[in-house]
Design goal:
heterotrimer, A alpha/beta (185), B mainly beta (106), C alpha/beta (407), A: 185 residues, alpha/beta, Pyruvate-ferredoxin Oxidoreductase, domain 3, 8 helices, 7 strands, C: 407 residues, Rossmann fold, 2 domains, seven-stranded mixed beta sheet, six-stranded mixed beta sheet, 14 helices, globular, binds iron/sulfur cluster
């Protein structure tokens, strides 16, 4: 994507790390000299409750401080969130989705006209982290279609955010997702 | 006397002169004065502790009571600052302090 | 080229460009100015400020006494004591915490103590809300503090640095509150250029030219004042707050020169030729209003925004000057003054400012973003269109407009 401003919404559940993922992307962009803002839509902060986190990336300072109503990219941590937020209808270009199979993706996103990036994030994150915390995995898949930030800067920030030990396994998850994610047109 | 204006006062109402409460002669407030019966007083120091001003003086003044008991200390009232509240008389365990009306006396 | 020079100066001063929330930006500023005592109690959405500071202290990056107190009342009381003894202090709170501090707010200003406090604003209970608005901050406005309202994380960082210079200035000696949007700023990650600490410290040398508690030369702070003294002592603080405006402007000027920034006590966005002006404070209202002004200009409306950055003392002359040529004005409040003629608190301030200058204007009171009710740039764009209607018809609402309220 070469646009000057890109709006991304992360959809997750409390405890899956959607807010952290949004912050990492914003920080990576800021480190590369871009303007960015990342902010969470807080509801009651309960584990399992639906959570949205918004990211704006831009080459110019961002004036608006409003929720993103029509994201260019939606990053969806859990297919059951698609209907909760009406994601296929509001997303402009890409849906990056965690699903168990390509068939499932086709089924749940039949109404979506844009491009889909599919990754089995539960499998990859469980393999590297021992539990299905998918945020860093989803970042790997997102990087397939987001060129305003680069893999190395994101890896750097994942290491800084999670510390040495946890950081390393998160970077592994991220790298594998970056390799495995499939762009379905 | 010209009263101080807001410009003359120390900032925030700070009191810059240590111990100047002594200049406030609260003794003028009194309607009754405490009088200590030195023969009845057992030098327990309770009045000295309770006085809010504080206006009970603990003096190194030897005293021998009528019954011959000797004390090194004497408790007296600082009448410049005693405001006559009567707490000392109320607290004294042997009722050695009497409150005497100021009117006519003084 | 003055601009080019300022830019090159700034390059030298900036240590790194980080992605920080406004709360972290506050903590980084406190770290840079080198405080002696921090006392605070956690409360959403403030907690991450003092968590970060606790981390700095634990790592040895900040050499301060960190007092984890049992309540906000104690937090401010502790820094009142420390400040009276000459320490440079910091605390932070929000919402119910600021309410719980309320009586000590008046003590801090009455005792003329240069305390700096950060407050990301939040709605007040009941009903219970953790979300952002400015009710807590508005309730503090009559407590005699200098109040700055920032609109970006960078501005939070810069304002806290300025706040120490302002508070400790011997012509001021008043506490300073640096506030900003709870969540919409306190938890939003955005770019912040942080400075090399040596430069920040050069800008904020400890100013101890005030009476302090010191056993070697005892004084009394916090005495009772009988009615024949209270009024005069209170008036000193009232007068100092009013007069502080010129000092605040002077320090803004110095800061701009030193750090290559462009702060003023109000911010004007496309107002010079504007027919329709929105008066705002804080990050979300101002950012969305500016975006709306841009959109309105694209569609032929002469729209502008005046953002109030210095809230107390109120920038009366500057504000009136900025809006005197506008046709219709609206004041966006994110707080309420229930039962008043109009429910927008800053609306009343604007009307008073206009009245004091003999300027008569149609001004609309608008309330929005209560408990972080979603505010869109388009809401403000629609407001500009409404102001255009009012200008044409000459009719405008004589009651507060509650935007975003389901009716
Ligand atoms: S009467 Fe009150 S002020 Fe006077 S000595 Fe007794 S306790 Fe003190
Ligand atoms: S309380 Fe009574 S007995 Fe005790 S020292 Fe005072 S006067 Fe004497």
């Amino acid at each position: 994507m070469g646009n000057s401003t890109v709006e991304i919404t992360f959809y997750g559940r409390g405890g899956q790390g959607a807010v952290t993922a949004a912050q990492i992307i914003a920080q990576a962009a800021i480190r590369r000299g871009l303007f960015a803002s990342a902010f969470p839509e807080y509801g009651a902060e309960r584990r399992g409750a639906p959570v949205r986190a918004y990211v704006r990336l831009s080459r110019e300072p961002v004036l608006a401080r409003e929720p993103i109503e029509r994201p260019d990219i939606s990053v969806v941590f859990d297919t059951r969130l698609l209907n909760v937020f009406n994601i296929p209808a509001i997303t402009r270009r890409y849906i990056v989705i965690n699903a168990s199979s390509k068939d499932e993706v086709k089924q749940v996103l039949s109404s979506f006209n844009g491009t889909v990036v599919y990754v089995n994030a539960y499998e990859i994150s469980t393999k590297h982290l021992g539990k299905p915390i998918v945020n860093t995995t989803m970042l790997g898949a997102l990087l397939k279609v987001l060129d305003l930030v680069d893999l190395d800067t994101v890896k750097e920030l994942v290491l800084e955010t999670f510390g040495k030990k946890l950081g390393k396994s998160n970077v592994e998850a991220l790298e594998e997702a970056y390799k495995m994610a499939e762009v379905i047109v | 006397m010209k009263q101080l204006t807001w410009k003359d006062l120390p900032l925030g109402g700070y009191v810059l002169e240590p111990g100047n409460a002594r200049k406030n002669l609260t003794g003028t407030w009194r309607t009754e004065r405490p009088v200590i019966d030195q023969d009845a007083c057992i030098r327990c120091r309770i009045c000295w502790m309770y006085c809010p001003e504080p206006a009970i003086l603990e003096l190194k003044k030897p005293y021998t009571t009528k019954s011959g008991k000797k004390y090194d200390l004497t408790y007296e009232i600082d009448y410049d600052h005693c405001k006559g509240c009567g707490i000392c008389a109320h607290e004294c365990p042997v009722k050695a302090i009497k409150m005497v009306p100021e009117v006519g006396g003084g | 080229m003055a601009v080019a020079k300022a830019l090159s100066v700034r390059e030298e001063l900036v240590k790194e460009r980080l992605g920080l929330t406004s709360n972290y930006a506050a903590a980084y500023a406190v770290k840079a100015v080198d405080v002696d005592v921090i006392a605070a109690y956690p409360i959403t959405p403030q907690t991450t400020i003092i968590e970060k500071l606790a981390e700095f202290v634990a790592n040895g990056e900040v050499d301060a006494e960190y007092i984890p107190v049992e309540s906000e009342h104690s937090a401010l009381s502790a820094v009142v004591g420390a400040s009276a003894a000459g320490a440079r202090v910091f605390t932070a709170t929000a919402a119910q915490g600021l309410e719980f501090m309320h009586e000590v707010l008046h003590i801090a200003s009455g005792l003329r103590l240069p305390i700096v406090m950060a407050v990301p604003g939040r709605a007040l209970s009941a009903p219970i809300s953790i979300h952002g608005d400015y009710q807590d901050i508005m309730n503090a406005r009559d407590s005699g503090w200098i109040m700055l309202i920032a609109s970006s994380a960078q501005e939070v960082y810069d304002s806290i640095i300025m706040a120490y210079r302002i508070a400790e200035d011997s012509r001021v000696l008043l506490p300073v509150m640096v506030s900003y949007d709870g969540f919409l700023m306190s938890h939003t990650t955005e770019p912040v250029e942080i400075y090399h600490e040596e430069y920040v410290r050069k800008f904020t040398p400890r100013n101890l030219s005030r009476y302090r508690l010191d056993p070697r030369s005892p004084i009394t702070i916090g005495v009772i004042a009988s009615p024949e003294w209270y009024y005069e002592i209170k008036y000193q603080a009232i007068h100092a707050l009013k007069e502080s405006k010129s000092v605040i402007k002077e320090i803004h000027g110095e800061f701009n020169k030193f750090f290559g920034t462009n702060y003023d006590i109000i911010e004007k966005y496309m107002v010079d030729d504007a027919d329709y002006v929105l008066i705002t404070y804080g990050g979300a209202s101002s950012g969305n209003a500016k975006e709306a002004a841009k959109r309105a200009r694209e569609r032929g409306l002469r729209a502008g925004v005046v953002r109030i950055r210095l809230f107390r003392p109120f920038p009366t002359e500057e504000l009136v000057n900025a809006i005197k040529d506008a046709k219709v004005i609206a004041v966006i409040d994110r707080a309420l003054t229930p039962g008043n003629t109009y429910e927008g608190p800053v609306f009343s301030d604007v009307i008073t400012a206009l009245y004091s200058s003999g300027v008569e204007k149609p001004v609309v009171s608008v309330v929005h973003g209560i408990s972080q009710r979603t505010m869109l740039a388009d809401d403000f764009y629609n407001l500009y269109k409404m102001l255009d209607e009012y200008a044409k018809t000459g009719e405008y609402p004589r009651r507060t407009v509650f935007m975003g309220l389901r009716t």
